[in-house]
Design a protein that fits this description.
The protein has 428 residues and is an alpha+beta fold. The chain contains 10 helices and 6 strands, in the order H-E-H-H-E-E-H-H-E-H-H-E-E-H-H-H. It folds into 2 domains: 325 residues, Outer membrane efflux proteins (OEP); 67 residues. The protein has a 4-stranded antiparallel sheet with strand order 2-3-5-6, with no helix packed on it. Strands 1-4 form a two-stranded parallel ribbon.
Length: 428
Amino acid sequence: MLKKSTLNILLLILISACNLHSQPDTTVPLKKVDLKAYLGLVGQNNLEYAARKFDLSRADAGIEMAKIFPDPSFSYAWFDNGQRRIEMGYGFNGGLSWTAELGGKRKARVDLARSEAELTRFLLQDYFRALRADATLNFLSALRNKQLLAMQAGSYQAMKHLAESDSLRYKAGSISQIDARQSRLEALAMLNELITQEARWKLSLLNMSVLTGELKKDGLYEPLIGTAKLDRDFNLQQLITAAQNTRADALAALQNKDVSQKAIMLAKANRVADIELRSGLIFASHTKNIIAPTPSFFQLSAGLAIPLKFSNRYAGELKMAYYSAQQAELMYRKAELLIEAEVTQAYFNYEAGRKQMNQFNNGMLDEAKKVLEGKTYSYQRGETSLLEVLNARRTYNMLQASYYEAVFNYASSLVELEKAAGIWDIEF
């Protein structure tokens, strides 16, 4: 059995811990931000999003590369028979050659590069669609954890005050030692829950700040609680149609079909033989040998070279392009199907969240609070047991936590639904 002095020491420790944790830890500076400003920071500073933007620059550079004409080639050669004594002669030849692309190859290359660049833009937009939703969910998670932290702090304060009161009542002989000890232990358990919830809250703030690409000593971002209209009237079929017509990944799948068609045009153009235009200059020195004496001379030449494509080496490229086009068509149909399924599932989840919220609109929380207050009052008058008070406290805390989870789930389902539908008008 613990002695009274030991119980008093425990009480002092408990009170000290309360003073340390009754308020959220502010050792890390916090910068309050609303959702609109937060999403602006994410869009501007998110590191992965910033890295993906270089894909656009690379795609634009690809267009410039596709516009390039073939460069000419210069050749030069020197010859000397090495028989200087009998003067067999020496000389050089030089030439220029240039490949003239036929069949519209350059235009086909440029068209393909531009189509690929447009595809890259849609893919980047789709990445931001997902990033914006993830950032909003992190924002909501931080709000929920802050509310749960406030709930835990309030419960702990109430239980601490009850433990202090029970300590005085025990000294006065009004309650038993076991009840005084139980209330202190219950307060200590709530303190542990408070510390745990405080850690969860800080982690959610850290997750918010990471998405902004800013994790500095000047502090973490903390969400501001605003007003939001969660109850919306949506038409499922309209959402599906809008998503299939406007979602960035749907547009990307459609653009991929265009890319495949442009690839076919390039493959066809590549089957047309190019010609090589050539010009040259030859100089040969005089020779004075007895067998074939000749004077020195310059010779100009011009001509062209046409490859004889007996191997028909571009037939495989064309086949691959056709297969890619067929594949792109199937992938587009798959994208439409997945979008429909995703929107439908998000809509069902949203409706389920609405029903869950309706359960808390019938006064459950108020009733639970009244029961708790009544049980606490009766216990202080000696009319009920501590166990009944603790059960009422746990019931009230459970309902509070369930309510905050329901609000979070409802708000999250709205985020997921608008993300799936490719629309965005959310403010919290």
